[in-house]
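Tokens as discussed.
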């Protein structure tokens, strides 16, 4: 096999790996942007009079906030558990992450309150789709982390072939100059 053929096949291999790397980069960009942006409707669940909460200086967390599919929550009502009286929104601070804490300047400290709220969570379809995207993206990222090693090895092989072709050309020229 001639030196030119070796250089040509190495160049083709290098180009193929370059194209593969670019396709992989595009793949990661597209699937990375798809995660979380597919337009799935959130599941909505209503919880009435969840007990075990309090409104004072300590943070209390809604039961649904521990669900792995939990996205956000919104308060409907907060009632004093002992007399059923509605507790005004100015008496507490609520975070959509599912935590409630007594506000500064609240009317009182309530040791037992019942909270009614609406929870938004991801659907099973969204979870499955995001899992597939994460698996594909993770696999592609792992595969392409070795691209620098392949390009380095390919560059070394190409340099060796170039050095061999220069040596071959020099040896042929020396043989032809002695034969005259």
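Sequence:
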């Amino acid at each position: 096999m001639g030196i030119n053929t070796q250089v040509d096949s190495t160049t083709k291999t290098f180009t193929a790996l370059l194209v593969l790397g670019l396709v992989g980069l595009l793949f990661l960009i597209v699937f990375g942007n798809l995660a979380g942006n597919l337009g799935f409707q959130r599941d909505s669940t209503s919880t009435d009079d969840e007990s075990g909460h309090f409104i004072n200086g300590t943070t209390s967390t809604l039961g649904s906030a521990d669900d792995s599919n939990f996205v956000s929550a919104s308060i409907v009502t907060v009632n004093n558990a002992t007399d059923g009286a509605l507790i005004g929104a100015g008496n507490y601070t609520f975070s959509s992450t599912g935590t409630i804490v007594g506000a500064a300047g609240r009317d009182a400290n309530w040791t037992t309150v019942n909270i009614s709220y609406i929870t938004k969570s991801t659907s099973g379809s969204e979870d499955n789709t995001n899992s597939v995207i994460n698996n594909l993206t993770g696999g592609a990222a792992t595969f392409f982390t070795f691209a620098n090693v392949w390009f380095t090895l390919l560059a070394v092989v190409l340099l060796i072939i170039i050095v061999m072709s220069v040596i071959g050309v020099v040896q042929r020229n020396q043989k032809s100059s002695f034969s005259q």
